[in-house]
Amino acid sequence: MPIKTPFFSRTSALCESMQWKEWAGYYAASTYGIPHDAEYFAFRNAAGLLDITPLFKYQVTGPDAAKYLSRIMVRNIEKLKIGRVTYCCWCTEDGKVVDDGTVMRRDENEFFVTSADPCYSWFSRFLRGYDVELEDVSEKISGLALQGPTSRDILKRVCDANLDELSFFGTTKTKGDGFQMFVSRTGYTGDLGYELWVENDHAITLWDALIDAGRDYDIRPAGLTALDVTRVEAGLILKDVDYYNALHCLIDDRMSSPFEISLGWTVNLDRDPFNGQMALRKEKENGSNWAIVGLDISWPEIEMLYNRHGLPPEVGSTAWRDSIPLYTDTSKKVQIGYATSGTWSPILKKNIALATIEKKYERFGSKIQIEMTVEHKRHTVSAEICKPQFFNPERKTCTPKNSQS
Amino acid sequence: MSNKYDTIVVGGGHNGLTAATILANHGQKVLLVEKRSIFGGVAAGEEFHPGHWSTGLLQDTGSVRRNVITDLSLEKFGLETNGKRASTAILGKQGKCITISDDETQTAQSINRYSEKDSEAYLTYKNFITKITPFIRDIMDQAPPDLVSMGTGDLWQLAKNGLKLKRLGKATMMEFLKVAPMSVQDFLDERFETDFLKAGMSVPAVQGSFTSPRSAYTTLNLLLWECLSSDEVVGGPQALTSALVKAAQKSGVDLKSDSDVRQVVLDEQRKVKGIRLDNGEEFFANKVAATCAPQEAFFQLLEPNQIEYSLEHGIEHFRSRGTTAKLNLALSKPLRFNGQEDDAMFARTGNSWLEMEKAFDPIKYRNFSSEPILETHNTGKAPEGCATFSILVHYAPFELEGGWTDTARNELTENIIDTLSQYSPEVRDSIVGSELLTPIDLKERYGLPNGHIFHGEHAVDQLLTRPIPSCMQYNTPINGLYLCGSGSHPGGGITCLPGYLGAKRILKT
Lengths: 405, 509
Fold this sequence. Notes:
Number of strands of chain A: 19
CATH architecture of the largest domain in chain A: 2-Layer Sandwich
Strand order of the largest sheet of chain B: 6-5-13-14-15-12-16
CATH superfamily of the largest domain in chain A: Probable tRNA modification gtpase trme, domain 1
CATH architecture of the domain at 7-42 and 60-81 and 234-319 and 455-508 in chain B: 3-Layer(bba) Sandwich
Distance between the termini of chain A: 53 Å
Number of helices of chain A: 10
Number of helices of chain B: 18
Strand content of chain A: 25-35%
CATH class of the largest domain in chain A: Alpha Beta
Oligomer: heterodimer
Largest interface: A-B, 16 and 13 residues
Largest sheet of chain B: 7 strands, mixed
Shape of chain A: globular
């Protein structure tokens, strides 16, 4: 049975839909109301408050902490400045991705790592030879994501952090009335937003403070269903949906390198040895097999297709995550990949998807065919290949202090 | 003097010296660095009491291979073999003694005093050993087939080995296949009846490893020892070392003692670039032959991020649990244990399965034996009228409960002397000096991981793919780093083969 996060007394009282998901062993609200639209629009137009306690959290401390993490991560963590966060992934020695997450440098020798999968066992493999302490703080620290255009204003009212200066992917320690926390300007919605890390004892105090302060800013508790729509719009990949943890793959074909899942930009190859370096160097030289791309699926063609069956066009109101075949053309002779997740984007008014395709077909602007089943019959509609990022508002990265000057 | 070499050999033991000389003889410019001020490693004789010398940590030189001696022309450098296996006295309590010599008939006669049946059994046993010896020597003398990549050559080698096994004849082959996995206790029980003979015979099967006569596959270790054992080097391990050093010098190897290697230096592609000493001095070569233990090569000489996890995991689980201590005794007069004959340089105790098992039990609980199993070596290096005994002691743990304090050391020394006194009551009063080397001291002095005298246990899995599958061909996943010590095929003991075969492997690249 899943267990309850420290916010459960609040989230359960608000969860009118009674729809829960199991997330890493915890109850996590899918939606609070039915349908989830209001939560989605809170993320995009006001502020959504999401319980992200189920994420796995690790604290890495000690004189060799940066060196140690640099050995594990594809990114050179030694270069990460104090008060900065980085998003990256970590690989097996064959250069296949195990998981992705954020690494925060809270102090010279103090780091905080989040991951989707439990990674203690993996991280602890590499402790030999480093003066470092690795602690799994997953059950000690609670997390909240406050995401949306009004999130900064709400947060300003509950803590003393200088949020006008906290830039995108910055982090700082701060306190409010009855709680202390770390705030990082990160999130999974691709919007202005923050993630708040607080000790379990202070979790409820923080929740109440946010809800209270957020009333004037249309704060709303939001569930995973709404989050899923926003993350596809933002083009943020999801483990076990858009790629698989290499350690859980029964076959090599299922494993992916960072280059193959649009995380090539997080890889710092030319530096001291790290997990997967040799394999990734080779791949960089010889080229990758796959690429994650965005798909803009043709709405007129969907309309026509439904029309042929005498139906009005239908789109699901939530994001989907089935594997959908992609072809070069309508003959469906050559499959070039598969879409892994997609959604109707209410804000963009587009039917979008994230897809894995053979590297040689990764040409932005080119048209391919995606399978679509209407009235139990399989058809295809065309889709345009684009960068896997559909929504990227200026406010996401904008810092008031800087934009004023 | 330039600091650029073709190969740098780390460690100046018998394997390091062998490897360096082979490489130099094939035209390579070779540097050999040794941490200590003397060469020879576990085969280095040392004066532990004025005038009294051990001839090395290990005592038995009967397994140095003929082809190594010939290839290195060691006889030109003063190496002499006495043309036969050294005699060993098998000791039992109440003055019992059987001498196992190179002469089977003589040995059978010696056994006959205790059991007629066993004297016949011994001849049958030796007959079996003689039959399988060419097969065993053949396997030990060649680099192992690569079981990981399994190329055509490797398959061919495996097939050839299979054929050689078949050529032993059906009966011998079946007997070998049947007995190899057995415990040495079961194996000897099937053949012999005299308790102290069986116990004494089994000692080479359990020597150095975390096994007792009841452990599986110990028979294989007995057979390996029996088959490899032949001519003894006159003067013991130290004499071998002297010849090896001379051979190395003659071949132009740069020998550098008192040089502790801090690091094997790799380039950005993780290829070997050279070594850096503790004093900061650097030497360059794109090949490094490490004859230290695999654990030391990977964990001490490389940065943690330079080795991949699978390699680290494999090496970390290469089992090396030291179980042997050494006691060097300086005696004021020559001694005889029981009826030990004059020319029996070695003596072994054991007495009975029960007593051996009792000696083994404490180590499971991190304690040493109260009545340990002893292998004594009369080194012959003592002042006129005196004697020196160098003794391998089984079993003593690396991590002793409560630590190796002075009290613990004294207690173990007393246990050994008490045990010895049962075979020669005069021992205690003749002692003028002694030196005890616990597994901790062995690690400190020789760099042996956990004090393991063979670098890693001779368990069957660790013999088949030694030390681990990805390193079983002397090369390693680190480009340019080779393992040519006892942690590689065919394993520990003074054979010079890991160094010899490792060097041959390097020459092929």
